[in-house]
Amino acid sequence: MLRASLLLLWWILTGCNPAPGSTSTLTLQLRVNDKPLSCDSVFSLTDEAVSLTDKAISQAGRVWQLQQFQLYVSNFRLNNRPLLLDTAALHQQADIALLGTVCDGADNWQLQFATPLAAGQLSFTLGVPAVLNHQDPLRAAAPLNQSDMFWSWQQGYKYLRLDIHSTAQPAQQWSLHLGATGCRSASPMRAPEADCNKPNRVTINLDYLPGQQLILDLAPILAGVNLSADNHCMSDPNRLSCQTLLPRLGIGALPQGWSMQ
Q: Tens digit of pLDDT for each residue in 136-148?
């Protein structure tokens, strides 16, 4: 009896200890053509990321700089078991976080989990759960209180926002904003009673090993897209640019650009 009790105590103690090298932090790194992208760097989609040179400046519309990149991620699971975030962290609640940057503003590239991460299949949702998607951002708790990541009570939040501008003159602007569409209510100022016809949430599944980073490379998402002011994508499925971009984000197809490294 004593031996069985000692074995049970050993199993409990060792089972609660994190594996060597494990951490409760997961960092997102944004890339283009497998090279890190920040607010200070410029990039080209026709070549690998380039430095800001006279030649690059002369290639009007081909060289771009980040203005804003943010995304909501939620519903984390590890090996198909719920994985909670640390509610003490500023940019997250127990089941949702805001990652990315507003250039010349605030940024957050780290997820803080309540427990250390073990090796296994990590899954999460790119998007805001329906139960949270149609509230008033002025009254919402962080990270759902950022009004420029919100369309309207009817349509809800922007799950992903990418704004870039060209370095050549005259400067060009281009945007990709992902959110729900087909949301029905009495007016844009009212939340729908049911989920939107096209909720546009995307599930990401990746194999994770302790110490790895979460990577999102924009190159396979934006490749071949005409980045111009009249070719934005605001999640409208009838727009030609969105018909290319939404499947690459994972709407009706496998999401592109995500990896663990």
A: 999 999 999 999 9
Q: Is the peptide bond before 170 cis (omega within 30 degrees of 0)?
A: yes
How far is residue 193's CA from residue 184's CA, in Å, rounded to a whole number?
Answer: 8
Nearest of 231, 211, 212, 213 to residue 222 by alpha carbon:
231
Written as six digits, the tokens of 230 are 């009249």
Joined tokens for residue 107 = 């940024």
Chain centroid offset of residue 17 CA: 30
When the pLDDT of each residue in the chain is averaged and rounded to a whole number, the result is 88
pTM of the model: 0.87
The answer to whether the CB of 223 falls within 8 A of the CB of 208 is no
- From CA 54, how far away is CA 258, in angstroms rounded? 32
Distance CA 186, CA 201 (A): 23
- CB burial string 3-42: b at 16+ within 10 A, e below: eeeeeeeeeeeeeeeeeeeeeeebebebbbbeeebeeebb
227-260 confidence digits (pLDDT tens): 988 899 999 999 999 999 999 999 999 999 999 9
Poorest-pLDDT segment among 119-133, 162-176, 200-214: 162-176
